[in-house]
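User: Batch of two.

Assistant: Item 1 of 2:
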Amino acid sequence: MDALKALHDEQDQAVWLDFVARGFIQKGELKRLVEEDGLRGVTSNPSIFEKAIGHSDEYDASLKAVQETGDSRVIDLYEGLAIADIQAAADVLRPVYEASDGADGYVSLEVSPYLALDTEATLVEARRLHKAVARDNLMVKVPATPEGIPAIRQLTSEGISINVTLLFSQEAYEAVARAFIDGLDERAKAGHDVSTVASVASFFISRIDVLVDKLLDEKIAQANDPDEKAALGQLKGKVAIANAKLAYQRYRKIFSEAKWTSLSEKGAKAQRLLWASTGVKNKAYSDVLYVEELIGPNTVNTMPPATMDAFRDHGTVRATIEEDVPGAEAVMARLARAGIDIEAVAEQLVKEGVQLFIDAADNLLGAVAGKRAALLGQRLDGQSLVMDDTLAAEAKKTVEAWRSSGAIRRLWAGDATVWSGHDEANWLGWLHIVEDELKKAADYAAFSDWVKQEGFTDAVVLGMGGSSLGPEVLSLTYGQREGFPKLQILDSTHPDQVRALEASIDLGRTLFIVSSKSGSTLEPNVFRDYFLGRVKDKLGDRAGDHFVAVTDPGSDMERAAQSDKFKKIFYGVKQIGGRYSVLSAFGLVPAAALGLDVKAFLETARIMVRSCGPVVPPAQNPGVLLGTAMGAAGLAGRDKVTVIASPGIDSFGAWAEQLIAESTGKQGKGLVPVDGEPASVPAVYGRDRFFIYLRLDGQAQEAQDEALRALERDGHPIARITLDSIEQLPQEFYRLEMATAVAGAVLGINPFDQPDVEASKIETKKLFSEAERNGALPAETPLFEDDAIALFADPKNAEAMPQASDGLEAALKAQVARLKDGDYLGLLAYVPRDPKAAGILQEARLAVRDARKVATCLEFGPRFLHSTGQAYKGGPNTGVFLQITSAPSEDLPIPGRALGFSTVVAAQARGDFAVLAERGRRALRVHIKGDLDTGLKRIAAALTAAVA
């Protein structure tokens, strides 16, 4: 008789196969083993599926078929494949199950090893898998961790058959056996059938000998007595079998007790010991050692194919499990006397076993993620990272640390210890927002239809920071759509800019989108007061029909919108900070008003969400890869994150600036984003840059491409991101959100607070309140003043620049001289943001960059206060700042307020400067008293001369 078949027929030991693969089932090989060798079950684990799916192409057709119906999550792709294989194997084994009255014929599928230390999550997952496979002859595998044992009892009580895995200890086995019995007892007391529940306790064999033999070798090396060395050597290769034999004795005892007998009389089936890990690792041992020495009734041996082949060929069938039990006891006693604690060995092996399965799951899911990315092709924006060997090695170490610690899964689970362990878990609503907003896609479509039907010619977003920068990218990238209004953004309190916007629109045909999360931010409130008053002058009581609000539930803005009868209120999510809100209502309402298909927009973003998902390992996770590279670069001194983008998507950098700066720039740490610097030759850059290049196929410039190639050749780190079309831009919002959150963790900060932005708000509010009381802001004393300009600084900065008393040119030369290697220049202009002003200052910033090899930032106030202002005040003290203010052509009153926009913008500039000074920043303020263009040109000329 076939030796494999004889194990069951002669010794009542079931043979199970520790292997599953699609081709193996489809080609009839599993069925042949059942029919010819008497195979009675199949086990699987992440390692088995990793080999089957990750190292073959036999699943590719199935993956392709699924992806052709729409994109899927990586975990769903894997589970679809695995469940199909388990179902197919279960169907092959169904006759065995029926013939054995449910004692055999099982196929095992493992609960995710990521959940091994979480009882509740294990319960949820086991129930879900049991339901999804929908086969009576499924066993769900649950590890025998301390957290797994309560789950085993509960699942057994619910009638789910469990394969308990990762058992190494007799004590742990007894706890598992009793948990099984307790679960059945609970089920019986509830009046349920206990005869339909089966279980096996997978007791691992070879791994024990591998570890114990290593420990014995260490003891032998330390021993001096030849007899002691010999005695220790005789234990090698004996402990695993002895441990298993004694576990079997416990099995016999436990399943002869009265509690079990009572259940047995109700038809309950005993939980069998299953010998697992029976492939021999040590070539010095017989390749059938762990089969031949563990043969006994009502047990299972699950073998890998090679061991099965070996036993079929030359295995000996005889009852061995109860041979020389005293000898087994003696082996374990001698081991203890040698100072090796088998319980400690078992504890270590459980931890290692969980980690091995996690490693295999990472490899498996990484392989599936890779196949998904290949099938998506250009639908998924590409990413490549180029770094020098030193930085690449650091980034790789960081990626592996994220993998081994499960950091991406912990991030998605809301574990604040990924960052600083403070309130980060309260700010993770952005992780799930795309799926949440897709459920509201019909509402956005209806709003879009209404906007079109009303015939608005313009839509104006009134907001700051995250409420305005995302919509601005959408407006500049997608442009005006036929039949829809032109989307404009107002995020400046400078009266000339407010006046210019009003002059460009027809108030009677304009929709105003008032965006403010808290409803207490100064700028949106004064914008609302001003334009609501102007529209009321024109339309009377119908003014509210031209306003919608986007705000968090319960905010002051919600109450104001209700009072003023706004047409509609859209709600944000309190758990999302403004800079992470572009894929929420704060970005989607303007998108709908612009005429974008919000559903398609979100579905495109979802492709990246899934690519950055919790089970996508860091090495295949684009958000984690980019974030770890940014973080590692920042720690290595390359903290100037320079964003370069193709024409058509070049507005993205201003949004990225806020996200990176406000998230990372605090506690004296952080990344300083640089937007608006065109790519140039390597000679103009210091060694503090990290480049992100967003390349839009079809609109990329050869000069830009070549500049980046030259920078790469010069050793600068570059993250290249490729977009097939502008419709794929939503993916980049999510990628960078994830990358920034990851970079924050690498830098060791909380990426979701903005303490120094709040400081500026407080200082501004104090100044504005004082001005409202006194009729004007407090008087200032300039360091220098002539007919056109005045210079101001705090005492410390004034002392550092005595040259300022000699005039603008001397002052700017002294200020620029304060720049050192690794510093950056910040031009903070509280003037109307228009192409003319930007062009004048752009020439000056590039002159400084090219001459001094420092990063330069050109910002317009007050919008940057809600953006890069956080990094300038709270990040590394490497900024040298020139604040530029100007006298408006005339003030613009705000309805319901004593003072106008001139006072608001002046208070913001002064509040900003006060906090810069308080933080010890190197800062100088230039106030233009006369003609703005003339003043800007004079400043630009002085900056250029300072570096000539």
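Item 2 of 2:
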Amino acid sequence: MQSDLSPGATALRARSRSRRLLVRQSLLDRLAGPGTRRCVVLRAPAGFGKSSLLLTWQRELVSAETDIAWLRLADVPEGDLHFMTALMAALGAIDAAITRQAVAHARPDAYAIERLVIALVRGIAAHGRKVVLIVDDVHCAQSENVLHALQLLVEYAPPNLLCVFASQQELPMTLAHTPGSKTVLELRRDDLRFSLAESIDYLGMRLPDLDERAATAIHRLTEGWPALLRLASADVRRRRGVQSSPLVHGVPDPEPFAAYFHAHVFSRLSATQLRLLTCCAAATRFNALLCADLAGAGYTPTLCSELLEPLAREGLLSSPPEGPETPEPLEAQDAAPPRERWWHMHPLLRSVLLTRFEAWPEAERLRVHATACQVFALRGLHHQAVRHALAAGHRETAARLAERGAAALFTQGRMNEVIALVRQLDARTVGDNTNLALWMAWVELADYRLDDCARSIERLRGQAGATTPDRAPDRAPDLAPDMRYRLTLLSCLLAIRNDDNDALSRLLPELLAPPPGADDFALAGRRNVLTWLYLHRSEFEQARRIQRDEPTPRVDGEPMVGTLFGSLMGRCLVGLSYAVEGQMHRAERIYRQVLNEAQERGARCAEAERLTAQLLVEVLYEQHGPLVAARFIQEQLGAPDGLIPDTALRMIIVSNRAQQAAGRRREALEHLAQAASFLGRFGMDRALACVLLEQFRIQLAGKDAEAARASLQELEVLQSRHPGVEPGTLRRIADVVEQARIWLAMHDGELLPTLAKIETLSHRYGQRGQIGFVAALQLQAAEVERRLGRAEASKARVCAALRLGHRLGLLATLLGAHDNALELIRTATTIPNLDPVLSFFIERIEALAQSQRDASAEPAPAPRFRDDRRPSSQLTLREAEIAELLLQSLPNKKIALTLGLSLDTVKWHLKNIYMKLDAHGRSAVAQRMRQEAERDDDGR
């Protein structure tokens, strides 16, 4: 064997220097591949870990008794002779016999290269053992003869030779057209990026004290770029404190990466490209037309596209994720192609370029921001337009754009974008614009900052009617009539969120008298608010008539469908009116229809889709029991922060009954304590009363009568806060207190008084049309009759309850009416000539009871609340899966393939993730999750 190697040629010993490397098993498995493979190509920019991957693979190959030759063209001087010498030295280091024939037949003529390759492949074939020839830095090859030799090595390769080429650029060879093209494996930039799990493992090797959350933040910033991960870990180690580096908090810090980008990126760019990229860094997203406007004279869209495309191929630019704010085409159809290509910049590259941008003269920077503001405003990208207006110092322009954008986004059902838009403005800018102050109040309502919202409404109402010394007597108030009517609508929604029908009733005269100038948006809101008001006053037919008889709401001539004030939301409320009556069959039909239509229409109907799914929980509970319904909440809805108090209450009760069905009474009581805290904080007394009743029932069933009496006292105190309430939601508190008294009287054996209380409450519910409650009370009365020894009267009441339950679609309600409900129901089967319909209904109830017993062996889904700050608490299980894959930098197509979903379904879930986390893209999702996790830690 040869002992002295020429430059660039390395044998196995030379590449086996001591180094800790991450074993990337998924890539190693792909490299192993079939034995018939002739060639492996690794193509990615510098810093993507090509050499490190090959080193780890080399260790596996050595253990498999494979010989390896390594040739690094960057170390080989130019010239064909130097290349041939280095190639023979690398192979000769394995076995001198491989190169013996090549030396013997070497002649300087036109066939010298081919003759050399033939001799080498014969020597390799005769060698017998598997040989892997690794040629690194193939992009450095300039000679046509060198490239020809590499291609011939692949074409003439014997079965025991595998050629591996690593390059920073496209291979200057035609491997795809060779006879062996089907046995070529190519790994590109996206294949070589670290996944989230790999980044965590890699950073854990280098920084043992780094926790998973900090590693995840670094992964998101680096986007899995191996060299940037290495630099990030070095920066954290250099600072001698994990928390001292901004990188672990997800904050881009240009300092550790500036030298790398200057050496490996900026040095290859022309001055024109570098100026263009610096301009682009000012914007979070850009296209060729915007770049031309930002860069100024001498730059055309075509030139910008030509300059940026190579950078996109290198992974420095990528298409932005499909977030809520999607670029729209220009108004003039001939001003831009129908589908413009937009990019965003690698976050760390952008941070480095921004330091260059900040060094530019102030006038130039302000010009760039002002230009970006105009372009984004023209395309309807309101968030970006406002951001650049503020950066350009144009506060009034930012306020005007925010006001216009908030109105447009709200009517499209994009409330989370309204929130993000208005949040960019400082208090002074909002305070100087009354209409913006009104939008800020909408934001406070959506954020559950109900006290802040109430104060904002009070302040705005004062401004609307105030006069000042410098105001002419005939001058209009600060709020125009149409905006004042929107303020009335906001006050109504606050009353709904507070579950305060009394306040809503007081606003009714204003609601019924819209001003002549009231816009379509306000009139559409009036329609849904009135429906809500009437259904909770038990005027069910009037609530449904509003949706049925009034025209479909339209804004600018287009039907308003998926927003809070849209027709789908109105149909949801019609379904709720049937559910409040107890008619689950009719409610379910409406919910299913609305849900299907909302899903077909996509993200702009997200609010209607979510509300319908929340309302559907009650139907699932009735048909399949609490465990199935609770799993639906966890998998499809996440935290039970209902859009209206009814949905929040239903999800809390269902989740709790799932805990009870699983035999976890202690956990169920803890869950109710959390729920009571949540509801009490937001002043939702009706829902709080229902939660206390649930707590009372668990305590009574657990034979803790003392605790149950304490819960009843809490209920009575709650009732005392609302004496003599008029028809509305709060009268439910008095009903709940009466139900608790009925349960306690039954427990204490006061049977005849109990029967009288049941009759009184049943009559009250019947008068209101809330016949669903009557069915459960009939079963309770049947139990009282049984205890009194009136068997026939008990059976008669059971039959009455069954007929009512069958007509309304109530299974779980009857099963949960009393601890002895199932045995009571079974007594009806002894009735001679029992109606087959009731017999079959009893079988269905028994099947539901059996399914609950079977499912009780499984752990019940853990209930979660809005004040749970963990990001996962806001997402369904499917959304959490997609978020995890998204954070691994997987594109939508790969996410769809991994989870077995359609591409449209993935996009739909992503938009829900952006909405729930108030995010405007993948990087924003990461930032939001990090912030919420930090708040959770601070709370502990």
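The two ends are 66 Å apart (CA to CA).
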